[in-house]
Amino acid sequence: LGIPTANIPLSGLSVGGYDDIESGVYYGWAGIAPCAATHQHPPGSQSKYKLMASHIASALGKVAFGGSDKEDSEERKETLTSEKGAVYPMVMSIGWNPYYKNEVRSVEVHVMHQFETDFYGSHMNVNILGFIRPEYDYVSKEKLIEDIKTDIDVAGRSLARKPYAKMRDDPYLLDFKGKEQVAS
Fold first, then answer.
1. Handedness of CA 151, 132, 161, 74 (dihedral sign)
2. What is the mean pLDDT of residues 112-118?
3. Is residue 80 part of a domain?
4. Fewer CB within 10 A of the terminal residue: the chain, N end or C end?
5. Domain-located, residue 131
6. Number of domains in the chain
7. Catalytic-labelled residue, pool 103, 108, 116, 135
8. SS3 letters for 49-108?
9. pLDDT digits (tens, 9 = 90+) for 25-40
């Protein structure tokens, strides 16, 4: 599809202590443990990310990674990328993927950032902040891709709102102590 995802084991998903979350599309923030990907392309860096409308990406970048003051922006990036890892906006699908006729429920996180290298085997924590839509079946791959791109835009607009943007600072996102499962 051209929209990379990190696949999280369903057994690793717990939302507020509940393991049974409704199937659908959600948005929030993803913390990725330190790896080559987080150091090469830190949050807010110039990237080739083309899946989100440019005006939405710009608004999200200003709120999440600092305003127009370049010094503040650089300082903000430093706090989001460190030896602890990095925090990025994300949109995720939880469900059966009916278009592909999956027999196993899955959790797929799309980190809304263009990476030059993958982060296979890295630990990832996600903070789910909102629900976008239920899971649908599609008549074509093109319609599926169209909806995914809309989901990315909705997530970007939502995360650009200050109350949601502040949640990127949740210490949980960069707390990887004692974590055993990894994204694939």
1. negative
2. 85
3. yes
4. N
5. yes
6. 1
7. 108
8. CCCCCHHHHHHHHHHHHCCCCHHHHHHHHHHHEECCEEEEEEEEEEECCHHHCCCCCEEE
9. 999 999 999 888 887 7
